[in-house]
Amino acid sequence: MKNSILIKRVILVFCMMSIIIIGSGCAAKKAVLENQGKTECYLDEKDATKFIYNGQQYTILNNTVDKNSLGDWIGFIQKYVALDENYNILKKCDMGVNVVGDLSDLIDHTDGTAYYVPYLNVYKTENEGDMNNLVVDVDNDFHKAILSENAKDGDLKIIFKNQNDTKDIENDLPQIDKEDVRNLTWEGKIYQITDQVVPNEKIGDYLCTLSGNITFDAETGREFTHDELNAIDIIPGELSNQKRETWIYDSVYTVIGKDKDSLAVEINYKCVYAILKD
């Protein structure tokens, strides 16, 4: 009887842990960013050239700034958005670890799409005390944004690129290798994630965020399916012999002075090197 109760408790705990690992991706990412002092920003549902930061509406301009001129990172949007010709939002989805899957879902559920636009993060300008003007990483560039109440008739709002094919977005962003999640792919090349920590002074430009958790076979790098994660070995067997590992994927950056020979990627809250494979 005691053994039966013990087994039931073990099963219950294991199931709860599996649910947490599987379902915590976007929620966990949001919590981490908010704990880091980043504020979630929201798009205007009727006009994708506008967003809300700290309760105030900002209008995105067509003017761009150099990435080296950014101030502090203060907010995040991190969504893929499908727009019609009038910049109305047709559908949006959170950026996750499966870039291709997210974009496929966007395509499958939207008709009449003229633009597929990635919205990433929000920054202060070089003038840190100026909250009338911000910078937002949108449509693969850093655009100026001004308080909507200060916008003038002569201000040119952002003109989105005609991205009715999501391949442009996929190619621009590092992704997790489907065959081996211990690797990243970027621009047709494979980068192997290491455990070597990147010094803060070597972390370069922000590229994207791979928000989510993946549990995989530590020997092969193969991601476990939901069914495999939910399976339980009552008697030690094949499952007990698996070497499982879980990584929390976060932001990806360039590495200063390394051109494209390596990347910096946040894994389990540490920024480590991902080295270009021969």
UniProtKB/TrEMBL annotation:
<feature type="domain" description="Lantibiotic immunity protein Spa1 C-terminal">
    <location>
        <begin position="43"/>
        <end position="145"/>
    </location>
</feature>
<keyword id="KW-0449">Lipoprotein</keyword>
<dbReference type="InterPro" id="IPR040876">
    <property type="entry name" value="Spa1_C"/>
</dbReference>
<dbReference type="Pfam" id="PF18218">
    <property type="entry name" value="Spa1_C"/>
</dbReference>
<feature type="domain" description="Lantibiotic immunity protein Spa1 C-terminal">
    <location>
        <begin position="176"/>
        <end position="270"/>
    </location>
</feature>
<protein>
    <submittedName>
        <fullName>NisI/SpaI family lantibiotic immunity lipoprotein</fullName>
    </submittedName>
</protein>
